[in-house]
Specification:
It is a single chain. The chain contains three helices and twelve strands, in the order αββββαββββββββα. Strand 10 and strand 11 (201-208) form a beta hairpin. Helix content is 29%, strand content 31%. The chain has helices at residues 7-62, 108-111, 229-237; strands at 65-68, 80-86, 92-96, 99-102, 118-124, 132-140, 153-161, 164-169, 172-175, 188-193, 201-208, 210-213. The protein is of the alpha+beta class. It starts with 6 loop residues before the first helix and ends with a helix.
Length: 238
Amino acid sequence: MAENVPPKASSETASRGLRRMIRRRKIADGVFAALGIVLVVASLSVLVALFGRLAADGFGRLWETHEVRPNGYAPARFDIIGVLRRGDDGTVILQRDSLVISGENIDAAKLAPLEGKAVLAEGRIPSPGQRVMEVEAVSALPDGKAPRFSRQNVPAVLRRGEEGWILEPVPLRLDVTTAEAEPLLGRRVCLTPGRPYGDPLRIESMDRLVRQTFFGAMPSRDPARAGIKSAIVGSILV
């Protein structure tokens, strides 16, 4: 015969079971809340770190400048830039910017004997405003005389600098009969050479270069020249 359980004892057993279940639920909720807080803090920490890295990398970019023509256009792929001067013989010359040598075929041991001497660097001449030149070969300049202007080589003096091996191009003699050079002497200019290339190099057009900031530049496919001027003007007008 089954033993009858008093109603009071049955009620207490059910109450204890309910309290245990509520306690387990509270513990689970607490663990879930703590885990959520940890994950949120970790996510915010990563976000702050990424934003800090982005700000550190991009803040300097806001104040960088690049060179453009007075009309706002960047120098074309085959233009030449540098400082316009007058040579000792009275001819107009262009002192091009120094270039940093780069390339898989560059052997420092072979370049060392050429330091301080006139050399001929063969390779891909970088676009105006770029300083790194992919060089295929560097050899001593025959008789120390620079050849006529070419897109495939640069006659220069080889130096060793903090950035590595540096090419200081020899001055380029110019024929400026079709361009007004006198007002631009001593200034940085952008030249469009005429073909065929000769010595002196005939110049078809000549413009001074001006500095442009990130806020004053238009959008560009070149990240180094891209700006937000159009976005600023559009936001103001809207």
